[in-house]
């Protein structure tokens, strides 16, 4: 049975694994990305974790990478990355890995890889056309039509976090005002909480903890969040008309606190709407990258 190495490069950490042809994770490692130290540090860490993986499991045939940023998948290079990964724009990820390990390499955007992972082994296994939203530090998106990722002309297809939700609203890092990302990301939740309460909490997890102790500001924040998420999904449905939606990313970890409320709001507009939480958790991107690596050799 074939086996490949796969790596998920996020702004905070890298998760790598050796994956078998049937999707079993045979071995895995995690290290800090150290994004703020710049591109050389990130490349060094990327090569270090890959070497660890390849040293521990023999007979690996290809390498797949899912990375933050827009990716030119034909060349395996970073077309554009935000300040979350300073200096990452322009890095020839595939070239660097090939030069060091001599194996075929596939590179894809991390949310696109997540969508591929969920389609291979997770929530969207039985569907060909679906839309993924990843609710984390920001909001990422991926659209899969007949099992093909929509990349767009500048590798920014389905950048759903920057679709406008409240035009003229909150300032976004992309320059627009009122993007989806400013309302339904983890960052948006704790910022909104601080705005209402005058406190200075630093994570969506803190908002969720306060929600569990019936904090009135946390209740308002999550009520707004589920409404905005429902509106986002309804708008995106009009744009893409997928068979169904997958919602993943860090916020899905606290779904028991908000999913029912969100589904109720969604159903009020459109009953029997097909939307499911991602199944593979934080391994979805790595597994999607593994699938892409397997596609190179099988
Ligand atoms: Zn934006």
Structural overview:
The protein has a five-stranded mixed sheet, with helices on both faces. The protein has a five-stranded mixed sheet with strand order 10-9-8-11-12, covered by helices on one side. Strands 5-6 form a two-stranded antiparallel ribbon. α5 packs across α6 (204-212), α5 packs antiparallel against α7 and α7 (216-240) crosses α8. It contains nine helices and twelve strands. The chain has two domains: 3-114 and 282-297, ATPase, nucleotide binding domain (Nucleotidyltransferase, domain 5), CATH 3.30.420; 126-278, Nucleotidyltransferase, domain 5, CATH 3.30.420. The longest helix has 25 residues, at 216-240. The protein is globular. β8 (130-135) and β9 form a beta hairpin. By secondary structure, the chain is of the alpha/beta class. Zinc ion is lined by residues 162, 172, 174, 176, 179, 181.
| Structure classification | alpha/beta
Report the major sheet.
5 strands, mixed
Instruction: Please estimate the helix content.
Output: 25-40%
Shape: globular
The CATH superfamily of the largest domain is known as ATPase, nucleotide binding domain
- Rg over CA atoms, rounded to whole Å, is 19 Å
- Rounded mean pLDDT score: 96
Q: Which small compounds were modeled alongside the protein?
A: zinc ion
Secondary-structure element pattern, one letter each: EEEHEEEHEHEEEHHHHEHEH
Strand order of the largest sheet: 3-2-1-4-7
CATH class of the largest domain, please? Answer: Alpha Beta
Task: Show unreliable segments.
Answer: none
Count the domains: 2
Strand percent estimate: 15-25%
Termini separation comes to 11 Å
In DSSP terms (H or I, runs of 4 or more residues), the helix count works out at 9
């Amino acid at each position: 049975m074939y086996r490949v190495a796969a790596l998920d490069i996020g702004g905070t950490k890298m998760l790598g694994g050796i994956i078998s042809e049937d999707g079993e994770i045979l071995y895995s490692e995690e290290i800090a990305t150290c994004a703020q130290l710049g591109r050389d540090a990130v490349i060094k860490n990327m090569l270090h974790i890959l070497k660890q993986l390849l040293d521990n499991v023999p007979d690996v045939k290809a390498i797949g990478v899912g990375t933050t940023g827009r990716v030119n998948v034909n060349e395996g290079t970073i077309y554009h990355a935000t300040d979350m990964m300073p200096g990452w724009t322009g890095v020839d990820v595939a070239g660097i890995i090939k030069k060091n390990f001599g194996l075929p390499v596939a590179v894809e955007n991390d949310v696109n890889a997540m969508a591929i992972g969920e389609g291979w082994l997770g929530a969207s296994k039985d569907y060909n056309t679906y839309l993924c939203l990843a609710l984390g530090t920001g909001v990422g998106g991926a659209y899969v039509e007949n099992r093909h990722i929509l990349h767009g002309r500048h590798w920014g297809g389905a950048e759903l976090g920057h679709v406008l939700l409240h035009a003229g609203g909150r300032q976004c890092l992309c320059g627009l005002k009122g993007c989806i990302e400013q309302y339904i990301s983890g960052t948006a939740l704790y910022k909104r909480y601080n705005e209402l309460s005058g406190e200075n909490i630093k994570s969506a997890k803190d908002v969720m903890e306060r929600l569990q102790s019936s904090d009135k500001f946390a209740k308002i924040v999550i009520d707004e969040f589920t409404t905005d998420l429902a509106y986002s999904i309804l708008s995106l449905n009009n744009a893409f008309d997928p068979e169904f939606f997958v919602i993943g990313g860090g916020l899905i970890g606290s779904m028991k606190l908000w999913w029912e409320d969100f589904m109720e709001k969604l159903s009020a507009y459109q009953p029997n709407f097909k939307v499911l939480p991602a199944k593979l958790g934080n391994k979805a991107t790595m597994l999607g990258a593994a699938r892409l690596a397997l596609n190179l050799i099988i």
